[in-house]
Amino acid sequence: MTLRIALVGAGAMGTIMARDVYPALVEQVTVAAVVDRDRHRRAELADGLGARAYGSLAQALAAEHLDGVDVRLPHAAHADVAVEALDAGLHVLVEKPLALTAEDCRRAASAADRAGRVVAIAENYPHLRAVRAARAAIDDGAVGEVLALRSTRAYTLGDEWARPWRLGGEAASGLLWDQGTHHTSMLRVLGGEIVAVAAHRAGGAAGVETVTLDVRFASGLLGSSLYCWGTPARAVETEGLVLGTRAQLDIDVAYERPDGVARLVDGTGSRTICAAESYYDSHRWIVADWADAIATDRPPLVGLAAATADVRVVLAARESLARGGAEVPLGPPT
């Protein structure tokens, strides 16, 4: 079955999906509608996809027979549109983060339960070959006992991404909401559930934001994340590091070229343990996984529970910042 969907949002992410992703997945997904408040942006993407353009999801729902929606809107709109689509009986793929509050995460989960539809979150890292290969190497014992985890996300936000809703109007809101669920997701794949967070923030040059997170896992492992907007990006960044008693794992992520890999490093040298990839390849894998989950009635790789766990870590980090860096326990899953 080919899914008929509406692409909701014609900004930077919507453009990537319309230009680079959906044309390669026509056997699985047909974009029948493009929804955006901006008339010119929605018309441009719709023309490229052979779809029709609408100013609201409600208009698209009234005019089209749809199976699902792909939500690529600013963070604050994710939960409301996801719930609107679920209440209309549609499957949903929603850009990370799922929501900005725990209550909105619960609201989306309740709507999914009522609708009995598949909800997947467009969280890239669990789909990356490098992250999956690193998890397999941990499970196989290649690194020995895992001692600690670290992640790094450091780059300069490009003009097409530097929107007010992404930068945020309060301390650390932009950086943590935009990138925090990303690396939280990767750390949770590698280390399991996170149970406590302590966060610190430093300001620097105009527009520069640096945030660190110290996390404790349910297993007792410790981890850390460093986020920085304002430094030149590397062509290939080692964004993940696993320290073990026998070896280390480097997770290299590449954005503009297909050079991202996972490497096993020990006293004898380094070897690559997965095929190379570009980070942007994962956008296709996310959609393909969502479509297959719908077709086979299975959970998607990143569903509501995982996305909610990621959001809870960011919420705890924000609380920690407000409390001067105090460690904040997450409590039991909701």
UniProtKB/TrEMBL annotation:
Coiled coil: none annotated. InterPro entries: Gfo/Idh/MocA-like_OxRdtase_N, Gfo/Idh/MocA_oxidrdct_glycsds, GFO_IDH_MocA-like_dom, NAD(P)-bd_dom_sf. The keyword NAD applies. This is Gfo/Idh/MocA family oxidoreductase. The lineage of its organism: Bacteria, Bacillati, Actinomycetota, Actinomycetes, Micrococcales. It comes from Occultella gossypii. PANTHER family: BCDNA.GH03377. Keywords: NAD, Oxidoreductase. Residues 3-121 form the Gfo/Idh/MocA-like oxidoreductase N-terminal domain. Residues 131-248 form the GFO/IDH/MocA-like oxidoreductase domain. The keyword rRNA-binding does not apply. Gene3D superfamilies: Dihydrodipicolinate Reductase, domain 2, NAD(P)-binding Rossmann-like Domain.
